[in-house]
Design brief:
Elements: E1 5-10, H1 17-28, E2 36-41, H2 47-53, E3 59-63, H3 80-85, E4 90-93, H4 96-101, H5 106-118, E5 122-127, H6 131-135, H7 139-153, E6 162-166, H8 180-198, E7 207-210, E8 229-232, H9 241-245
Parallel strand pairs: 1-2, 1-8, 2-3, 3-4, 4-5, 5-6, 6-7, 7-8
Helix pairs in contact: 5-7, 7-8
This protein binds phosphoenolpyruvate (PEP).
Phosphoenolpyruvate (PEP) binds at residues 10, 167, 172-173, 210-213, 231-235.
Subunit structure: Homodimer.
Enzyme class: isomerase
GO molecular function, one term: triose-phosphate isomerase activity
Length: 249
């Protein structure tokens, strides 16, 4: 099953008009492969700005969070409808920084996924274990638990709007990326789990690797059949982001 290679850039809470203009203009002037889907996820105040600057057909924009309500008295929250109105089509949900720092439960993440899809967004769903969970041998249990909450909350068909990002927490921002072989191993088990829940639809769900991916290590993953792309934090802010996008060429 051919799955379109996908590269997401999670800017986290980094950015200014100037730095985002530099990033987007660098992409605009680059020769990007026609068969790679790229999604830039700037901080929410810059969603519309990023969408307006972007001139590449294969580049889309995504938010880093959205809430379970369309509008109302939810000070500080972000509606998926507002995200769409700003020209974005995607949202990252379940990032470990949201789960950890902001205490988002599996069920809350799953509700956000269901509502974002209901309102027409596509979702980059992040899952992954901490270093203690890895040492305890519970990597797959954690991933399956996080996925199970979403399986319960959304319709089977909704999975065509979900991209899964396997992001081991110990690899995020540490410079210690998982090896390509280890990523392939867990990705194939994640796909097996999805197959047990979704049947053959699981073959079309893209599973990205995230955690210290960069221009140098991205090519190591190129022959791994279940690594369908990357979710990139730090390196998405740098010119090397283009090398990650072109790493399958
Ligand atoms: C992330 O935060 O989603 C991420 C993968 O970060 P980094 O690439 O910086 O490890």
């Amino acid at each position: 099953m051919a799955r379109t290679f996908f590269v997401g850039g999670n800017f986290k809470m980094n950015g200014s008009k100037e730095s985002i203009k530099t990033i987007v203009e660098n992409l605009n002037s680059s020769k990007l492969p026609a068969n790679v889907e790229v999604v830039l996820c700037p901080p929410a105040p810059y969603l519309a700005y990023t969408a307006e600057l972007n001139k590449q057909k294969t580049v889309q924009v995504g938010a880093q969070n959205s809430y379970t309500k369309e509008s109302g008295a939810y000070t500080g929250e972000i509606s998926p409808v507002e995200v769409k109105d700003c020209g974005a089509e995607w949202v990252i949900l379940g990032h470990s920084e949201r789960r950890g720092i902001f205490h988002e439960s599996d069920e809350f993440v799953a509700d956000k996924v269901a509502f974002a899809i209901e309102k027409g967004l596509k979702v980059i769903l992040c899952i992954g274990e901490s270093i203690d969970e890895k040492k305890a041998g519970s990597t797959l249990d954690v991933c399956e638990r996080e996925l199970a909450a979403v399986v319960k909350a959304v319709k089977k068909d909704d999975w065509q709007h979900i991209v899964v990002a396997y992001e081991p927490i110990w690899a995020i921002g540490t410079g210690l990326a998982a090896t390509a072989a280890d990523a392939q191993d867990i990705h194939s088990k994640i796909r097996d789990y999805l197959k047990s829940e979704l049947g053959e639809l699981a073959d079309s769900v893209r599973i990205l690797y995230g955690g210290s991916a960069n221009g140098k290590n991205a090519p190591d993953f190129r022959d791994k059949p279940d690594v369908d792309g990357f979710l990139v934090g730090g390196a998405s802010l740098k010119p090397e982001f283009v090398s990650i996008i072109t790493s399958r060429e």
